[in-house]
Design brief:
This protein has 106 residues and is of the alpha+beta class. Helices cover 47% and strands 14% of the residues. The protein has one helix at 7-56, and strands at residues 68-69, 73-74, 88-93, 96-100.
């Protein structure tokens, strides 16, 4: 025994089907955008972790560091290997002299 559906019922089902398809298409688009965003965040996290690993595993300092002290400004510490005298006095500005002695402890 087969039953036929009425034209009104078919139209109603078709309308619901079209509506559902539209909602699914919007949902798919939103999910793809969310996926793309999360992949970008993952790349940012991976880049950050690689940078952290690179700097936490550093075995030597490769950059020149300048330290500025209150009152005297930048003080270039001489390389001990190149110090010919036992003591060096540097005049950093008028009225201020800084002494460096590699053999004496502070």
């Amino acid at each position: 025994m087969s039953q036929k559906i009425s034209g009104a019922w078919f139209a109603k089902m078709s309308q619901r089907y079209k509506q559902e398809q539209g909602e699914n298409a919007k949902r798919i688009k939103a999910l793809r955008l969310e996926l793309k965003k999360s992949e970008g965040q993952r790349m940012d996290i991976d880049t950050f972790l690689a940078t952290v690993r690179r700097y936490t595993n550093a075995t030597e300092i490769t950059q020149h560091i300048t330290i500025y002290y209150n009152g005297i400004g930048a003080f270039p510490v001489p390389d001990r290997r190149n110090i010919p005298a036992a003591q060096i006095t540097m005049r950093t500005r008028k009225g201020v002299a800084v002494s460096y002695s590699p053999d004496k402890s502070a």
